[in-house]
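Input.
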Amino acid sequence: MTEHLAITRIGRLGDGISDLPEGPLYVPYALPGETVEVEQWPGHGDRRQLIKVETASPERIAPVCPHFGICGGCALQHWTGARYRQWKRSLVVDALAQVGLDAPVDELIDAHGEGRRRAVFHARRGPRDVLEVGFAARKSHRVTAIDHCPILAPSLEGAIAAAWAIAEQISHMRKPLDIAVTATAAGLDVDLRGSGPLAAADVAGLGEVARRHRLARLTRHGEIVAQLIPPALTIGRAQVVLPPGAFLQATAAGETELARLVETHCARTGRLADLFCGVGPFALRLAERACVRAADSEAPAVAALARAAERTPGLKPLETEVRDLFRRPLGADELKRFDAVVFDPPRQGAEAQARALAGSAVPTIVAVSCNPATLARDARILVDGGYRLARVTPIDQFRYSIHVEVVALFQRSMA
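Output.
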């Protein structure tokens, strides 16, 4: 049975919302001001599937990708840029308001740049046992097979073809695969996940795929299958050889913009801590002028950072530590050493470290986050501990998605 709904607003997951007396209904790909025909989404009581837009919003535009609406990677290709940017900034404003913070929030900075430099492709058996390689459909394990993605950077050229070739090479194993591809200065770095142990013939076949597609490196769960050249990136003045499956910011422009803000906020500080440091996108730049202590739980990332620092002349002392900051945050005695602390945790935020910082006397704290909700929670902890939330900057390196990066500056009065 179909229904006819009037859409009043866009929710935080990018869905159009129809506000009814009995509660809101969520309609993906619908826009405010539209009337739409929908049907029940099986298994989702308050969600509806869009059948037809009966009255279109003047803000509706043609999507840039033919897979939009089928592939689950993008949520908002159909909305004008200005309204999309207003909505994405509002995600940060609303998250802070939810915890009672009314802070100055800058205009959204577009950091899409050339596009995404990393992607995870899924390979699954679809209808009639046909192999499909692409991205997951929205709210589904089904894969949307693709041969092109307009949000990927030119440096990922060949990534989709390589993912197809890898999946086809071991398709006889009939296992769901995830194929993570990262663009590096040396070429594509690929990590295969989900295959289970490989027979010698499979390893040899994958090695041939890597050679044919000129991959810098192909690994399986971090174990090298083939390597043409060590995959490296330039960070500041340093060259970092990435560990397999290393985390990077989604776009090169995003990393540059985040680092610019971090450096600006820490400009007058001489002793810094970079927590949840990863391979060092902040630490290696900050060490060009200040002493840095960098910590993260990912031992391969910390080792890569340490090696890069050792090989880069002219850096200030950069101390590294493998440390689980969720279980063992830096405490008050350790924090006394620093003029500023930068933390960039995973999506779950850094609650334990925020509580330790709230009880410290560190003059400047810079929080970087890809999750406005957990950033707001940690910000509330810091503000309750006496810090002032001086500036918040939303950064969009996830164009067309529901995700937004945030940099927040906290300052403690030393009076």
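The CA atoms of residues 387 and 412 lie 5 Å apart.
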